[in-house]
Amino acid sequence: MAREWNAPIYNSQRWRKVAKAYAASQHYICERCHNQSFIGTGKEPHWIVHHKQHLTADNVQDDNIVYGWDNLELLCIYCHNAVHAPQGTGRTCQFDENGNLVGILGEK
Ligand SMILES: [Zn+2]
Ligand SMILES: [Zn+2]
């Protein structure tokens, strides 16, 4: 489902700045699974700055919700997908002790 109302935020300079600063403050490590596999790869970042309190049409005007660090969480793309797919995609990430992604269970 398209969410036109929040697209301008994610494309804004301000959001990018905040997201980048927040990700740097977490050392680009996923806060849930501590996945670090995206560090230093030089590839597209696989982390996402997620809003703990999901953005809705009602709270999107609230600077504290959108830009406040208290509402932000740095997630790898797998954890982020899981957060936004409460029904579950049936996928579980597996990591080695160094935080490298070694496999995705249930991936088709
Ligand atoms: Zn999110
Ligand atoms: Zn993760």
From TrEMBL:
Is Hydrolase among this UniProt entry's keywords? yes
Any one GO molecular-function label of the UniProt entry: endonuclease activity
Q: Does the keyword Hydrolase apply?
A: yes
List the InterPro entries hit by this protein, alphabetically.
Answer: HNH, HNH_nuc
Which stretches make up the HNH nuclease domain?
A: 17-81
Query: Sorted alphabetically, which keywords does the UniProt record give?
Result: Endonuclease, Hydrolase, Nuclease
Q: In this record, what's one Pfam family?
A: HNH
Q: What is this protein called?
A: HNH endonuclease
